[in-house]
């Protein structure tokens, strides 16, 4: 097996790729203003300023849209944790540092726009939203923690830069899918337009990280495939520690905001194809073993997807039958 590169060696080897992709991103990224996506004329004071506090009847969002909007916004709110993680793994030097700053500034717009929209339109309870934000940001987030005990076994190299770029590649794409589907679920053209704009940012961010990780595969194939496998097989969305995450996640999965099939077919598989994971011939025996483990995990995920969909369809059918029975009784 080839010698694994240290964190510093990886940063040095990948720095030209980072510089190229920072420049690419700056050419393609479109500047936008959060205030242009908020219907300010719908706003009114809350009780502290002589107005009326939030009431559930004021919201135009159904339960699915509320759960998705809150989950997506609280995910964006945890930006300080994400900034800290990529700053620690990427360094703040040269192209790496420029990307960390630019990415953080772009991501910050997402939370600003979404919160302003929800508060102005009274889409969700702003007090509960603030309480959840405090809890979630206090808990923080680390992508390495999602790998469980085996993360420690990966050592500094794979568990640092490579693991970080592998994780954010999938996470940014997953967030893009979730934002796009949440926009549709809101049944509001303003929300849909806002979340399409945010999703476009997420896609460009994904491309940056995907290209860095792809270059990592070329430079150190075994090391990088191991990091990819650990990320894919232990993947959790960054909202894991927020209040009601599992409840909201189930609701979002049941109603097509983000489910296992989307995770497999719209996130994992397209990225792996882009990296030519199953066509590459530059892995050693150790890397080949990791690739086989990855293939086995994907087979299991596909089987789990079918089981989930069968359970979901039965649950939705029961709910529909209850509603029909209630209508008939009334």
TrEMBL record:
Domain of life: Bacteria
Essential cofactor(s): Fe cation; Fe(2+)
Keywords: Fatty acid biosynthesis, Fatty acid metabolism, Iron, Lipid biosynthesis, Lipid metabolism, Metal-binding, Oxidoreductase
UniProt xrefs under CDD domains: Acyl_ACP_Desat
Binding residues annotated for Fe cation 1, in chain numbering: 76, 107, 110, 202
The protein's name in its UniProt record: Acyl-ACP desaturase
UniProt cross-references to Pfam families, sorted A to Z: FA_desaturase_2
GO biological-process terms attached to the record: fatty acid biosynthetic process
Residues given in the record as Fe cation 2 binding sites: 107, 172, 202, 205
Similarity comment: family membership: Belongs to the fatty acid desaturase type 2 family.
Listed InterPro entries: Fatty_acid_desaturase-2, Ferritin-like_SF, RNR-like
């Amino acid at each position: 097996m080839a010698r694994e590169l240290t964190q510093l060696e990886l940063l040095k080897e990948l720095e030209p790729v980072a510089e190229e992709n920072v420049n690419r991103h700056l050419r393609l990224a479109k500047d936008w203003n959060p205030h242009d996506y908020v219907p300010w004329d719908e706003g009114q004071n809350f009780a502290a300023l002589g107005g009326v506090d939030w009431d559930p009847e004021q919201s135009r969002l159904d339960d699915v849209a509320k759960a998705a909007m809150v989950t997506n916004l609280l995910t964006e709110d945890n930006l300080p944790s994400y900034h800290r993680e990529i700053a620690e793994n990427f360094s703040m030097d040269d192209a790496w540092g420029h990307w960390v700053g630019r990415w953080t500034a772009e991501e910050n717009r997402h939370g600003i726009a979404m919160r302003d929209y929800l508060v102005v339109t009274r889409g969700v309870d702003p007090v509960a939203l603030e309480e959840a934000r405090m809890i979630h940001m206090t808990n923080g987030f680390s992508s390495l923690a999602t790998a469980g005990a085996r993360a420690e076994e990966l050592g500094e190299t794979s568990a640092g830069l490579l693991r970080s770029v592998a994780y954010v590649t999938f996470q940014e794409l997953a967030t893009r899918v979730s934002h796009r589907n949440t926009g549709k679920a809101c049944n509001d053209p303003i929300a849909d337009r806002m979340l399409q704009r945010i999703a476009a940012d997420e896609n460009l961010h994904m491309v940056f990280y995907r290209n860095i990780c792809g270059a990592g595969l070329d430079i150190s194939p075994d090391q990088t495939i191991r990091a990819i496998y650990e990320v894919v097989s232990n993947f959790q969305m960054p909202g894991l520690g927020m209040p009601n995450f599992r409840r909201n996640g189930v609701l979002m999965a049941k109603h097509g905001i983000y489910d296992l099939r989307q995770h497999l077919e719209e996130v994992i598989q397209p990225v792996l194809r882009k990296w030519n994971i199953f066509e590459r011939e530059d892995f050693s025996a150790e890397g080949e073993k990791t690739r086989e483990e990855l293939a086995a995990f994907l087979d299991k995920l596909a089987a789990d997807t079918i089981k989930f969909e069968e359970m979901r369809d039965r649950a939705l059918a029961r709910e529909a039958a209850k509603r029909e029975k209630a209508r008939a009784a009334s």
